[in-house]
Design a protein that fits this description.
single chain; Arc Repressor Mutant, subunit A; 6 helices; 68% helix; 12% strand
Length: 147
């Protein structure tokens, strides 16, 4: 087992995430009217479409009550809309609003800027290879974790 943290897969993934998140917060202050957590909500809704609150909480890795409070603020701001599932009234479905789509486009531009900074010095083939490898890692883990 490799004792150096900078050569351990889990540490590197977590640390890159931390650094990207901090940079996102820094850049987003001037251009977005949303927090990083709110941007993550919109990114997941854009990717998965309308989802229930419990699934969204799971994707965000937060307790359902925390997700509920976050979604309350976003609904008040006009970023999302919620409705009861007609097949199960206990379940609430969440979707993005048109206002959120415009904000998500700005958030993606911030993300693109961070990616350019993070991948500086890598050639096109190296970038494509890194993305491809990470997609394979995610696929491997999804098969195990998202059963």
């Amino acid at each position: 087992m490799e004792p150096q943290l900078d050569k351990r897969f889990g540490f590197l993934i977590a640390d890159v995430d931390r650094l990207c998140g901090n940079r996102f917060d820094e850049l987003a202050k001037s251009s977005l009217n949303l927090t990083r957590a709110q941007c993550r909500v919109l990114a997941y809704l854009s990717h998965y479409g309308e989802v229930n609150q419990a699934r969204l909480a799971s994707l965000l890795e937060v307790a359902p009550i925390s997700a509920g409070r976050l979604l309350d603020r976003m609904e008040e701001g006009g970023w999302i809309a919620r409705r009861h599932n007609p097949e199960d009234r206990r379940e609430r479905q969440v979707r993005m609003t048109p206002k959120a789509q415009k904000a998500l486009d700005k958030a993606r531009r911030v993300g693109d800027e961070i990616a350019a900074e993070a991948l500086a010095g890598l050639g096109r083939q190296e970038k494509d290879q890194l993305i491809g490898l990470l997609q394979r890692v995610r696929s491997n883990l999804s098969r195990i974790v998202d059963r």
